[in-house]
Structure formats: C-alpha cells, structure tokens
Write a structure and sequence with these properties.
alpha+beta, disordered N terminus, Beta-Lactamase, 45% helix, 5-stranded antiparallel β-sheet, single chain
Length: 199
C-alpha cells in the first residue's frame, strides 16, 4: 500500500493506537462485527450497556443480544449495509446478559478496508431512554424527550429506506429522505442548543 505524502508507517501505527483508545473510552456502545456477525470489537460502554464483558463476546455471535423474533431483520440490515447501502439509524430492542430488554438507538455503518472492500459492520448504540445528567433541569428533560422522539423518527425512516418492511417507489423514497434529513437537522440544532455555554 502506498502511504500518503508525509505519512510514515510509525505515524499510521500511532493513529491506529489513538483510534483504538477512542473506541475503548467512548461513552456509546461500539461493536464491530464481521459480515457473518462475529464480534471483533466490544468496548467498555458495550460492556456496561449489555452486561457482557468483552472476553465473553469477542469471537462470538452478536445475535445473542438480539431478541429472537428480530434476528432475521437484524441480519438483513447488516447484509444490506455490507452490500453498500448508506449507513442508517434506527431504534430497536436489545437483550442484556441478565435477560432484561433495553430500547436502544443504533447507528450502523460498513467497515471498509484499504482496498475499498467491506469487511464488516460497525454499530454505535446507546439507551434510547437514558436520562440527561441534570434531570432536575426542565430544559434538559425537554431536550432529552425531543432527542428521543427525533431519534425514533430517524431510525424508523432509516428502516423504511432500507426496504426491510417492503419495496418503495421513487417518490416514497424521496419523501422519506426529506423526513429523515429534516429530523437530523432538528436533532443537530437541539444538540447545539443543549451544549453548556461559557458564562
């Protein structure tokens, strides 16, 4: 592989180490899977959200955290992402190690190697009903409720755009893309307004 100008093998190794540390310390659950669903990455936030330590998940099938009735749909989603469909977001349920269900917002994207081939799928997830830290702040609660609703809209339209429930015509696809884009813009605005301001 030809290195970009100014980049050395050592700097690439350093970048890889930094990226690995970012994934390990991220607040959201990050899971990497091969195309057949074998777990290759399971960060600390995934351990906390789903209750499985990394050593129990690495090399194992990710579908143990999927509700049994949704495993076929989840597998179809991963196949479509691996086949080149755009990254998507949706809201679904997962099953923790103790058997309890948790509603999560999920973003899915392909893992692509240096040659441009898809080698797996990465998912980033977080509890959809997680309360903001300052629960006594009514503005914080309102922002949380708006984000949860918008994430649900983004997730549902993403599922429709991936044609999991059935085929779409071109006009339906266009309208759903407009809904998803508008929801994403609103979510971005809410996130910006929710950031602490310097006094």
């Amino acid at each position: 592989m030809t290195l970009p100008s100014g980049q050395s093998p050592r700097s690439f190794a350093s970048n890889d180490a930094l990226l690995a540390e970012i994934v390990r310390s991220a607040n959201d659950a990050i899971v990497g899977e091969t195309i057949d669903g074998t777990v290759t990455v399971w960060n600390r936030a995934a351990e906390e959200l789903y209750g499985y330590p990394a050593q129990e998940m690495l090399g194992q099938r990710a579908d143990r955290i999927y509700p049994a009735e949704r495993r076929d749909d989840e597998a179809a989603t991963l196949r479509q992402i691996a086949d080149g469909h755009r990254p998507c977001s949706f809201v679904t349920e997962r099953v923790r190690r103790d058997g309890t269900a948790v509603t999560v917002s999920v973003r899915v994207a392909p893992i692509v190697d240096g040659e441009g081939a898809t080698t797996g799928v990465a998912t980033v997830s977080w509890a959809a009903d997680a309360e903001p830290a300052a629960t006594a702040d009514p503005t914080g609660r309102l922002g949380h409720e708006l984000r949860t609703s918008l994430n649900a809209i983004i997730g549902f339209t993403g599922t429709l755009l991936m044609r999991l429930p059935g085929p779409l015509n071109s006009e339906q696809e266009h309208q759903l893309q407009l809904v998803q884009s508008s929801a994403e813009k609103l979510l971005s605005c809410i996130n910006q307004l929710s950031r602490p301001r310097d006094r």
